[in-house]
Design a protein that fits this description.
The protein has 4 helices and 25 strands. The protein is mostly beta strands and 377 residues long. A hairpin with a 2-residue loop joins β14 and β15. The chain starts with a helix and ends with a strand.
Amino acid sequence: MKRVISYMFCLLLLTGVAGAETLPAPTAEAPTEVVQDFVEDDGMSEVVGKMEQDLPSIEGLQPLYTTKIKLMTATGTMASIRVAQDENSQSLGAVSINQVVTIYKVYPAFVLVEYQGIVGFVKRTCIDENATTIDPTTTPPYGVSKTKYVATTTAVAPIYTDPDTASQTFPIAVGAGSPVAIIDFVDGFAKVLYWRSYGFIDAALLTDLVVVSPTDTPLSAETPIAAFSSFFKYDNGNELNDGRVKNIIRSCELMTRVMQPGEQLDFNADIGPYKKSNGYFPAPVLIDGGSQPGYGGGTCQSSSTLYNTVRQVPGVTVLMRRPHGPGCARYLPMHQDAAVGNESLNFIFRNDYAFPIRILAESAGQGVITIQIFRAE
């Protein structure tokens, strides 16, 4: 804790795989299309802690984005504007599909909007991710989650729903020695993005705090210009989930690299092929609408974590990205995933900076994958 405070003063998704053990093992090493990760909701993916239960008010806030209502279901025609970040809370009104709302604040599962004088919360599953940024000079693109710090856990670290050790804990606890990207510090806790919620890690369990540069000019060679973490289940006694964890670790090894100006990274080509001979293990994937074992399951979480990292740096251009269907991957907020596995599902980006960048992807296989980008010159 002293090291964390000293640094601050001086510098002023998860896979619960229900029933996966009953799936048959792959019969051959033929290349498997990792069409989608098989990931179940952990039951707490949209928890709103006490400190995030804001009132439906835009007083003092500036408008950030405008976007259309775009419902997930073919039969849906209206989206409710609610009094709280709870789909069962009181409805203050409704917005028809294709109508435009103004977004004032973005939360992991909801957005705070105004529509024809009505102010309240709309689920992110109801809006179009192709939002227009009102002032691009001060506001990052919709869905970009900026982090301020990276620190390393010194012991097994529970993730709480509030900055309070008496609050409820999420199912995943991060293992010792794991780097974690941090949004900010609140009351002695590190605030992190946990699936479609915010979570909090006791700062006393963190060390080696590094500031993420707010610009493309880092404070030092050891200062990243972007960082992002996502969380996954591990050590649950499920062999196929163990394979998924090993695949995340293997993909981190392959993602770590230096990219020269103008160089592209093609995830399927450079991190694949998703085969045993390339170090991948059987893990649950979705193919033809059903779950079955496939080599490379879990790499979609790696590509999605990388996607969220590169989106924080304007000099990197995303050339191809597709979500995991209309509902997107559950281990990240809506609209923030990047599926890989075949010609139509891939993540490709290019370094358009005039300088090389270094990608450092790390996971000890204990609940978190963290990716950082550094200026390499």
